[in-house]
Amino acid sequence: MRALIEELCSVFGPSGQEERIREAIVDHLDGLVDEMRTDRLGNLIAVKRPSASGERGKRIMLAAHMDEIGVMVTHVDAQGFCRFTTFVGVLKNTLWARRALFAVGVDGALGRAGPPPARERPTPQKLFLDVGADSKEDARVQVGDTAVFRSSFGAVGDRLFAANLDDRIGCAVLIETLRELESSPHEILAVFTAQEEVGARGATTAGYGLDPEIILAIDVTATGDFPQATPMEVALGKGVAIKVMDRRMIAHPKVRGWLEDTAQAFDIPYQLEVLEFGSTDASAVQVSRAGVPAGTVSIPCRYVHTPSQVADYNDALGAVRLLVNALSGEYPS
Ligand code: CO
Ligand code: ZN
Fold it and tell me: Which sites are catalytic (predicted)?
């Protein structure tokens, strides 16, 4: 799965332009599911029908988002410098001096008006993208083009570094879960969602269309384990996190209990997560139609929504083990 994470992190796919990452995921799902389709919003829906009959078999939606944060060009000036707006989740004070990449392969450097700042962290109003052009005519990008952040994928031991572990690591966990799940009494609706970073839009329509009985999101979560982090229990390398609550979702106690019981039964290290900012696709599906019991399997990740994200490979492996074991058994009555 490590190679899979690295591969998925290398594919371009900001919100609304998920074509390339979707293609990459489709290639890996071949032979793992009974049915695959792309819906109108660009979600990739892969269905695995129940292989064992069980009284408590459910229709379970699993959601991992394909899209990644980025910036969109709003204006190209006469000298070819691009002004931009950020997608909702981007932490605006982390942009200065980063590298960005456009769909057409054009590289950009995030420059800043004026001399390099000593203390101040510049806002997007002071930033621009230098795309190697000398004039507006010369710039190979235009208004509405989107760029994602890029840095080379790195690993030190089991720590993985990439600009978009959110949520390519979750996509890899979902693919690996489908690969390792030998039999299940449940109908598995694995959805690689579009446009999560702009407000779980793909999950909203997929959740409505699929009408699942349970929703589990697979996404990264923040940690409290680095200097001056917002106090939080979750730490890298201490296991998969089972969400209790985030900004827009309270996990259904039965879903959460099912995950916790599974982790305990199979000796899978886990951490309980309360996230005071941010949310996942599960929040959108939870309030779909008449409501759907929801939970989230989280992979701890430092510096989420910055161009330098760090996760621990063992936590991702734990997420796969938790999902495979939970889905292999029956849902508690
Ligand atoms: Co995110
Ligand atoms: Zn995410």
Answer: 196 (proton acceptor)
Cα(89) to centroid(ligand 2), Å: 9
Catalytic residue at 6? no
Co-location of 110 and 220 in the same domain: no
Residue 170 C-alpha to ligand 2 middle, in angstroms?
A: 8
134 and 235 housed in the same domain: no
Is residue 155 one of the residues assigned to a domain? no
Which residues constitute the domain of residue 232?
Answer: 2-68+164-328
Q: How far is the CA of 21 from the centre of ligand 1 (A)?
A: 16
Least distant ligand from the CA of 280: 2
Instruction: Find out whether 197 is annotated in a ligand binding site.
Output: yes
Residues 214 and 294 reside in one and the same domain: yes
Q: Which pLDDT tens digit goes with each residue over 322-333?
A: 999 999 999 998
For residue 141, the domain's CATH number is 2.40.30.40
Exposure b/e, 190-210, CB count within 10 A at least 16 = b: bbbbbbbbbbbbbbbbbbebb
The two structure tokens encoding residue 151: 């840095």
Catalytic residue among 68, 187, 196, 273: 196
Residue 65 marked in a binding site: yes
The whole model's pTM is what? 0.96
Percentage of the residues of the chain whose pLDDT score is greater than 90 = 85
246 in the same domain as 322:
yes
Mean pLDDT, residues 209-235: 96
- Number of helical H runs and strand E runs in the chain: 7, 17
- The reported pLDDT for the residue numbered 126 is 82
Please indicate, yes or no, if residue 154 is contained in any of the structural domains.
no
CATH number of the domain to which 276 belongs: 3.40.630.10
